[in-house]
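On clarity, I found the account of how folds are encoded harder to follow than it need be. Since the whole study asks how a given chain folds, the encoding of that fold should be made plain. For illustration, here is how one protein appears when written out as sequence plus structure tokens:

:::
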Amino acid sequence: MNATRDAHRPVREATRTDRLLAALGGLVAAYVSLAVADLVASRVRPEASPVVAVGGAFVDRTPAALKDWAIRTFGEDDKAVLQLGILLVLALLAVGIGLLALRRRALGSAAVGAFGVLGALAAVTRPDSDSAVDAVPSLVGAAAGALLLYVLMGRLLAPRPGAVTGPGAGAGTAAGSGAGSGTAAENESGSGSTKATGAGAGTRAARADRRSFLLVAATTGLAATGAAALGRAVGSPAEENAAASRAALRLPRPASPAPPVPAGARLAVPGISPFVTPNRDFYRVDTALVVPKVDANRWRLRLHGTGVREDLVLTLRDLMARRTVERDITLSCVSNEVGGPYVGNARWLGVPLADLLRETGVRPPSEGGPADQLVARSVDGMTIGTPVEDVMDGRDALLAFGMNGEPLPFEHGFPVRMVVPGLYGYVSACKWIESIELTTFDAYDAYWVPRGWAAEAPVKTQSRIDTPRPFGRPAAGTVMVAGVAWAQHRGVRRVEVRVDDGPWREARLAAEDTRDTWRQWTYPWEAAPGRHTLTVRAIDGTGATQPERRTETMPDGAQGWHSVVVTVE
């Protein structure tokens, strides 16, 4: 009975070094698991990567207030911070699994497999998943990690000469013990020689086992790194096709070009936001941890729902063959705080959405139409609800495929997105759009509504000081205070600046392009030495003054006066 050992118990007592190496083994196994999963995902679908799938599920279940805090705190790096956080949590769990495997080798490997199953479930239950194949990256990665952990623990816990393997180790029967006994002096002498020889052999074996452990860990880690890097460099076939389709796309000439920007609309003031925001600088706020790469040749748009005479399916070629228009439109995000950066102005090319709706029989509620909400759905499952009345009231609501003279960048919705002037992006600017459904606000809540945001959200009047920067130290004398103001679809009538608690002074407004674009403004300030507070406010095209009291971004956008503090030297 004593010779029988529990197969799940370590073959010898673990040392502190063993525990450190076991923790390292857990980390290496987790790393290899994720690297292999990423490699497989690069061939299946990048969105099926376990970190992306789990991260997406986390984003969907995160309270809106926490999401808003993340955007305020980390800006457009919020997604990278989230994924880093997931990796840190996984690292802690991996250490625990490694220590578990030190005591229960098979159980530790099973724990790695369990996390693979969770990743697979997250991948196949994402809104954009349409195939069980999305589970493959997580499962294959988990299998690789579990096998590696099992092998590593086998290297670490291999039997060694002279090692105690259990409570009955080295014991024989009473008779055998008695038969082999000699004098006390002989027993003591023989025992000392045996112990010295066993200890030396055990130490050498321990070092060899640890070298073997580290060699296997380093080799597999490096191999996994190389394989994952190769997979990312090569990319998935779907991404390659999407990139090729964008590169081959030739935008049509607009039937209705945008009017030339007035000469006085662009002010040459250092530090002011440019009138047209370059694509590379245009803000990006969405929930996609991996930017969808859609093949324009395979893209389809389905229009259906209440009030639609017959479902309509369009290809990108169909859409671009229609009457196209070009318009300058400023977009802003509801998560933009007072003075924040999530606003930009671009020249968009697309087709009027109202024309398409009317051709399919859709009428706005003001004309007796049964649908009051248009629900746009993205390829990644995002849903955005827009008032039908706003889309069809004559404003330039577009299905856009061009941005600043080129096809939409992938980050901004290629191949097609919605653009509706006067509404915040979360209720209008659906990127990577694939479906438009006509329904009612009573019948359906789009993605953000159950999370605490308002169902309807027209853009609020805002103004911002771009220069001088907060806590700047300009020299005494004439200081050019400058910035931008916006109130899309109402326009900006006037901008005023106040120094400390002094009177409001009217700023010089740049020429208006359209009421759907922001306006630059400047104010020459005779600055005296000392600490000063500069404040700005705007008056929109209806004559309404931007409210003073600051509010949070939830539930329908921030408002309040923007101010900066500077020290004049």
